Amino acid sequence: MNTTKDNSTILFCDYYKQWITVYKEGAIRTVTMKKYLMAHHWLEKLVPDLIISDLDRISYQKLLNDYASTHEHQTTLDFHHHIKCAVLDAVDEGLISRDPTRKAIIKGKQPGDKKIKYLNQFELHKLIEDLTLEQKISWDWFILLVAKTGMRFSEALALTPKDFDFAHQSLSISKTWDYKGDGGFLPTKNTSSVRKIQIDWQTVMQFSNLLKNLPEDEPIFAGTTKVYNSTLNGILARHCKNAGIPVIAIHGLRHTHASLLLFAGVSIASVARRLGHSSMTTTQKTYLHIIQELESKDVDIIMRSLSNLN
């Protein structure tokens, strides 16, 4: 950015807004841009009068502490990361004398007990039985496909007939759908999200008939009207109530898919690849309570195996 010595009197929140416009606008995904804009909103709320040249380690730590008083530790860490790059640029430009983010302490409220919501195998069968699977594309087919593949909501919306390889029983995930914006294709969440998912023969037969005569490169589910996550959650909730099972959200179908694979003995590495996680660590953190439950069962198996050695 073009800066002069007079810029040292600029408000920090104004500098940050200018920095977002120059360096981030048009270079990042809309969903990521919203996070930077939200960080700017909090700067205006917490330090509206802070001049950039007055930003030192104490004022920066106080900013983080104030933010952390109403947010969890991970959210505070994300906030820190979203503004740190701008601060370091201001240091390089001579607007701040020393790096105020050095040795910053990240605090935050303790996260609540967030147990992921998913269905067991019996409940999933009940849900599928309640779906109306006619010979035309519908949101019930969408629900079935997400349950059988563990795709993210945006990934499933971006599917085109061309993504199906019926001969090899696979589904290519290479893009997402901008359902939060104006529609259109977007890149996947990360490079690991680009993947092929094997699908069962029944799904192959069903979708090979459904997709006949549909345009190869156009989305199957995301049409001309805007798609809302809440709309799909409402449809799924209705089916759950009809089936007499716990109500979950569309994302809960992804958790259901992963949990069924883990309980079936599929390795964490394979589940991570199928879900498109950037690392097995993500899978382990997300499904920690399931893994712990499986480990307790493993102990019983180990003990029985050892007792047979006598």
UniProtKB/TrEMBL annotation:
The keyword DNA-binding applies. GO terms for biological process: DNA integration; DNA recombination. It comes from the Bacteria. Pfam families: Phage_integrase. PANTHER family: PHAGE INTEGRASE-RELATED, PROPHAGE INTEGRASE INTD-RELATED. Belongs to the 'phage' integrase family. This is Site-specific integrase. It comes from Roseburia intestinalis.
